[in-house]
Design brief:
The protein is α/β, with parallel strands linked by helices and about 350 residues long. The protein folds into 3 domains: about 5-110, Response regulator (Rossmann fold, 3-Layer(aba) Sandwich); about 140-200, Helix Hairpins (Orthogonal Bundle), CATH 1.10.287; about 210-355, Histidine kinase-like ATPase, C-terminal domain (Heat Shock Protein 90), CATH 3.30.565.10. It contains 10 helices and 12 strands. Strands 2-1-3-4-5 form a 5-stranded parallel sheet, with helices on both faces. Strands 7-9-10-12-11 form a 5-stranded mixed sheet. Strand 4 (about 80-85), helix 5 and strand 5 (about 105) form a beta-alpha-beta unit. Helix 8 (about 215-230) runs parallel beside helix 9 and helix 9 packs antiparallel against helix 10.
């Protein structure tokens, strides 16, 4: 686990906590102690436990009742509870499980057994947290996809309604038709990226390698995006090798990587700046770089932005779906290559793709 796991010990005898603390020494756990069930219930938010060691026999609120109350709260239901008990009868142990306990350990506590059970429960908690994070990411992803699908779809609907108006000039009609075509291409590109990612992730997609002129494919990608760059008064600069050299890639997927990287650079670059596309052949392979003058990527985000549904720098005026760079990473790694980002001093980012032939 990335963070130090938190273990809460609930026991009315401080000496028992000292024993457990000694037995767990060296396990890199953050131990907390509550001398009563009520204090534990009152301070669960401050403890934020990943696992609870709960004594059964306590005055006032006994372990069974504390366990029932913790498990009745949806916020803490997933926190594993290990009952620490001197009871050994099967009926007593069955009562522990019925109260909601996930495991139990008998007194006197054995150090090897304690460490194994705590480790096991922490592993279960980590798996639960991972599933919850994935569900949250998918929920965010659905919201982002809906948001990005709605923009071109709204443009199509609006342009279609305008085309229905009487007396529309031929120039206006042509303009609206082009807007519909552009929005349709945006929808198609997004859907295609999602389908390709799904196939790559499931291992059901075989790359169709062909020999591609690196310079030619870069020139084609720049040409197709020049109109979008011009809308922001951006200058596209190409620093490419002489035509004639080849690199073995899946041309359609590699071209989509270039499109995503260039679109990303244009999206985040301020007006009146420039975006640079560099390419060169290596021995073996090739290197492609897209350089922008945008907000850049902080060091702590340089790996995360390539994960699905992660967003780097939030900008209100910029539509971000959080899938473009994830697609690039999956596509380049499927080519057995590497993609990374670094600073473009004094401002911006440099996205580098390294292909190994």
């Amino acid at each position: 686990m990335d963070t130090q796991p938190s273990v809460l010990v609930i026991d009315d005898e401080p000496d028992n906590f000292d024993v457990l603390e000694t037995l767990l020494d060296g396990e890199n756990y953050q131990l907390h102690y509550a001398p009563s069930g009520q204090q534990a219930l009152d301070r669960l938010h401050s403890f934020q436990p990943d696992v609870i060691l709960l004594d059964v026999m306590m005055p006032d609120l006994d372990g069974m009742e504390i366990c029932r109350r913790i498990k009745a709260d949806s916020q803490w239901q997933a926190v594993p509870i290990i009952m620490v008990t001197a009871l050994t009868g099967k009926e007593d142990l069955a009562r522990c499980i019925a109260a909601g306990a996930d495991d139990f350990i008998s007194k006197p506590v054995n150090g090897v057994e304690l460490r194994a059970r705590v480790h096991s429960m922490l592993r279960i908690k980590q798996q639960y947290d991972s599933v919850q994070n994935l569900l949250k990411l998918r929920e965010d992803m659905v919201n982002m996809i809906v948001h990005d699908l709605r923009n071109p779809l709204a443009s199509i609907v609006l342009s279609t309604e305008i085309l229905r108006l009487p007396g529309l000039s031929p120039e206006k009609q042509q303009q609206k038709i082009e807007e519909i075509a552009s929005a349709g291409q945006q929808l198609q590109s997004l859907i295609n990226s999602l389908l390709i990612m799904a196939k790559l992730e499931s291992g059901k997609m075989s790359l169709n390698y062909t020999e591609v002129d690196l310079s030619a494919i870069c020139i084609s990608a720049v040409a197709d995006i020049e109109a979008i760059a011009a809308q922001k008064n951006l200058t596209l600069v190409s620093e490419l090798p002489q035509p004639g050299g080849v690199v073995k890639v899946d041309a359609a997927i590699f071209r989509r990587v270039l499109d995503n990287l260039l679109s990303n650079a244009i999206k985040f670059s301020p007006s009146n700046s420039q975006v640079i596309l560099r390419a060169e052949y290596l021995e073996p392979g090739a290197k492609v770089q897209v350089v922008d003058s945008g907000p850049g990527v902080s060091k702590d985000l340089r790996q995360r932005i390539f994960e699905k549904y992660e967003i780097g720098t939030l900008l209100q005026e910029v539509s971000q779906i959080g899938l473009g760079l994830a697609f690039c990473k999956m596509a380049i790694e499927a080519h057995h290559g590497i993609i990374r980002v670094e600073d473009n001093h004094p401002r911006g980012g440099i996205f580098t793709v390294l292909l190994q032939q």
